[in-house]
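Now for a sample.
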Amino acid sequence: MNAKEYLGQIKRLDTQINLDLRELEHWRDLSRKISSVNFSASGSSTRSIEPPFVKCLDKIMELEDKINAEIDSLIDLKAEILDCIHSLANEDHQSVLEMRYISGFAWGRIANEMHYSIRWIYKLHDAAIAELQKNLKS
């Protein structure tokens, strides 16, 4: 795994958490809808008498557990990557990588925060990635 892929794990996991949160909201919306009860005698005797919202509640609990586990993984991953970033010798390299991959800042914001041009930020980033790649190999 190269340095960019290593750092990109945070974004991928964060995106997955956000997708799961949207799905969770969908299931919560479904659970709030009340379906009508069918009192007719016709129908299968093997049909579930469980209310439909119970399936929604099961799915909600399953998703909540999954999201909590993903958040725990994200916290651990960020701590691990932050330690790796802080192992770099150059503080500007550390700042660029931390702002970009931990905080998720756009290039323009990083340039403003560090008081450099975007072009210089790109050069710092490339140098930081090269340094990190070297550290990851050793």
Summary: The chain has five helices and no strands. The CA atoms of residues 51 and 120 lie 61 Å apart.
